[in-house]
């Protein structure tokens, strides 16, 4: 495994090319993070299972103990970095055991008692739990909606701004570059949750953010069988603090999960393009149904977020949200679906949907549906959804 060692950022020593300059997303995805070819060795080396490594004498070299680094992580971290910030030097990526481990690493490594953080009030369901812990540590938490760049109004004195765009599950979008410039002018760092967009849909670091954070559990890996998270950043000191947090908390990815994630990235562009195209088709079909209200998909030209999204997103995501008249109608609709699993994640190859209000915590109507479009034939998926809507009308 000597060819997979080295820096976790950029190409690094021993890394193979992710593609020629200006290569397309598909080319970069299938080659991302691969080591230089070695005769008779696999293209992507298998997972390295090791709690410790041979370490005679002084502590030198990239690998010493399994909580700090692992060759399988190194390749995956390179791959993600090449997608989040292609061709950019000085960018570092760190992988974690889950998306929430990655989120927590940024918040708790950058904030101390007396600091102020600005969170989206319509963000991921676990953020209110995080808020409670932040406040218990003496950190002031302010919130504002994603829509309309409302977080601008509560930035003064903040140490960190947390952006989620598109928001989950409401699919609102904010002007990331505008918020970043305002935050930086006030001396605040900016982290962007890029889970829903993926690096192929949006590159927060190019928009000026300090951190791009995501759950790799969702569309990045896309098979519904891996829990993973990551943080990508360009500030050496800030990323050192994130790395230190990972070390002391031990929220590390397993080598098998890391390897499965890297394997899955090779098909990311294929999956994202298919799922995005199908999501737009489904959204177009749903807008014709009288029982559907509150339809949201940033790719629709008349969506409230489309104008801003089109300026900063290259793809609009695989999630469509809408509301049915009642909780009972939504439950009947979900029960009638045949090609769609009733499950709580999103971004997988198999379509999933859920009545989001069943969890509590999200400010959504009882009949609100979060629908994650998979890789099924769009005609089959739309037909299944329309049939389920018809059958649920009783």
Automatic annotation (TrEMBL):
Superkingdom as given in the UniProt entry: Bacteria
Biased composition (Gly residues): 7-25
Region listing for Disordered, in residue ranges: 1-30
Enzyme class, broadest EC rank: lyase
Family classification: Belongs to the trans-sulfuration enzymes family.
Entry keyword set: Lyase, Pyridoxal phosphate
Native species: Streptomyces cellulosae
InterPro entries: Cys/Met-Metab_PyrdxlP-dep_enz, Cys_met_metab_PP, PyrdxlP-dep_Trfase, PyrdxlP-dep_Trfase_major, PyrdxlP-dep_Trfase_small
Cofactor(s) needed by this chain: pyridoxal 5'-phosphate
Record's keyword annotation contains Glycosyltransferase: no
Enzyme Commission number: 4.4.1.1
Gene Ontology MF terms: lyase activity
Alphabetized Pfam families for the sequence: Cys_Met_Meta_PP
The name this protein goes by in its record: Cystathionine gamma-lyase
Sections of the chain in a coiled coil: none
Taxonomic path: Bacteria, Bacillati, Actinomycetota, Actinomycetes, Kitasatosporales
């Amino acid at each position: 495994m000597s060819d997979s060692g080295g820096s976790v950022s950029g190409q690094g020593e021993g890394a193979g090319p992710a593609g020629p300059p200006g290569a397309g997303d598909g080319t970069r995805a299938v080659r991302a993070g691969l080591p230089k070819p070695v005769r008779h060795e696999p293209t992507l080396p298998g997972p390295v299972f090791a709690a410790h490594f041979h370490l005679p004498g002084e502590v030198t070299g990239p690998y010493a103990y399994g909580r700090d680094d692992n060759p399988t992580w190194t390749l995956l971290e390179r791959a993600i970095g090449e997608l989040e910030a292609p061709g950019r030097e000085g960018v570092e990526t760190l992988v974690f055991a889950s998306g929430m481990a990655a989120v927590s690493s940024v918040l708790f490594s950058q904030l101390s008692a007396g600091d102020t953080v600005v969170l989206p009030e319509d963000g991921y369901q676990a953020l209110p739990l995080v808020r409670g812990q932040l406040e218990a540590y003496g950190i002031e938490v302010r919130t504002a909606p994603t829509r309309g760049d409302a977080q601008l109004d509560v930035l003064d004195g903040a140490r960190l701004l947390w952006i989620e765009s598109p928001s989950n599950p409401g699919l609102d979008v904010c002007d990331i570059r505008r918020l970043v410039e305002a935050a930086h002018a006030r001396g605040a760092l900016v982290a962007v949750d890029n889970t829903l967009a993926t690096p192929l849909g949006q590159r927060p670091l190019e928009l000026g953010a300090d951190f791009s954070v995501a759950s790799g559990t969702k569309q990045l890996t896309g098979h519904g069988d891996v829990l993973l998270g990551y943080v990508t950043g360009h500030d050496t000191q800030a990323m050192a603090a994130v790395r230190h947090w990972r070390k002391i908390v031990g929220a590390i990815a397993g080598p098998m999960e890391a390897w499965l994630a890297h394997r899955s990235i090779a098909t990311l562009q294929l999956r994202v393009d298919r799922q995005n195209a199908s999501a737009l088709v489904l959204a177009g079909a749903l807008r014709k149904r009288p029982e559907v209200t509150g339809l949201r998909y940033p790719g629709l030209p008349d969506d409230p977020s489309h104008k801003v999204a089109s300026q900063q997103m290259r793809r609009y995501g695989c999630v469509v949200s809408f509301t049915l008249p009642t909780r009972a109608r939504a439950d009947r609709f979900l029960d009638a679906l045949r090609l769609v699993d009733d499950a709580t994640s999103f971004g997988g190859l198999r379509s999933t949907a859920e009545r989001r209000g069943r969890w509590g915590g999200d400010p959504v109507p009882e009949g609100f549906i979060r629908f994650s479009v998979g890789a099924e034939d769009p005609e089959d998926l739309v037909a299944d959804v329309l049939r389920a809507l018809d059958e649920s009308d009783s």
